[in-house]
Specification:
130 residues; mainly alpha; elongated
């Protein structure tokens, strides 16, 4: 029963000849695994550096855009509101310009809010049909 304890491999030539051949194979696998781990670490580090640079770039751009928006709100919006007020005054004095003004600016009056104190009409009772 010695064959059942140590079954031979399908290919007898594939069996290691001695202990040194087996240790060479293990060393080769170990070095291959270390190279794969080093490659993964290198790729991960490179990807991290790329993402870090992108975050820095996005922060710079968002700071610049927020400055642009604040500048717009401080300078352009008051000028536009002043210009719209002057157009409104001109439309009041010149009746020919009033349709043009109402076409492009209209009215900014809010729609009337629904009366919430008034109850809706109650449903009518169903009539039985003969």
């Amino acid at each position: 029963m010695s064959n059942s304890e140590n079954p031979p491999l399908a290919n007898p030539e594939a069996q290691p000849k001695d202990h040194s051949d087996l240790s060479n194979r293990v060393q080769t696998l170990r070095s291959a695994l270390l190279m794969v781990i080093a490659a993964i670490l290198l790729l991960t580090g490179t990807f991290f550096i790329f993402l870090f640079r992108e975050v820095i770039l996005i922060r710079r751009q968002s700071d610049e855009l927020s400055r642009i928006v604040l500048d717009y709100q401080k300078t352009a919006v008051p000028q536009l509101q002043e210009f719209k007020g002057k157009l409104h005054d001109f439309a009041k004095t010149n009746p020919n310009f009033a349709p043009v003004y109402s076409k492009y600016f209209g009215t900014n009056a809010p729609e009337p809010a629904p009366n919430i104190n008034k109850l809706p009409n109650p449903p009518s009772p169903l009539r039985e049909q003969p």
